[in-house]
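Input.
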Amino acid sequence: MIYFFSGSDTAKVRAKAFAWVAAARAKAPEAAYLRIGAEDISPERLSEAVGASGLFFAKTLVLLDDPFSRKEAGELVLEHLARISDSQNPIAILAPGIHPAHAKKIAAKAEKTFIAEATARPVRGFNTALVNALAARNGPQLWQEIVKALRQGDAPEAVHGLLHWKARDLMQKKHPAATSLSLALIELLARSREEARDLGSELERFALSVK
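Output.
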């Protein structure tokens, strides 16, 4: 019988699979446990997994660990899928990031399936508060908005690009000190690259200098 663990959230999938193994071993401590990594998968090892039993235990708990990370191993698992499914041994197939077509074949044979997909980061809209703080030359508020943007996952380069765009926009509108803001941002980026400084920290320092 097959217990299938898959999905794009690799950490969550692996955690779930090993939690299942731990629970199964606690439930049947007398049963043998066999973990087969992708590099060890062969027709002989799969036959062992399917038919393994012993004098003191009737079943073997098996984990096929990420077989599809290697093309040949994944193909062998699919080739022996019917035998794996018919086995009396509980066999977990841990396959994060597997091709959907392969996942569909395994899920159709599985006793249970666990899928954990990574959640996409929501697309953030135009950061009005950030550019408004720069336009108002409100250094403390600008610092807060930069820190907030970075903590929410915006790349420092994206934050810098937005600020520099606003500085150029202010230059076109003849805003006082807009040129100095633009030059400061250009120098900040160059300094960050040449001296391998953290761009996020440089942006924070820039914000605190704005008056």
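The first strand starts at residue 2 and ends at 7.
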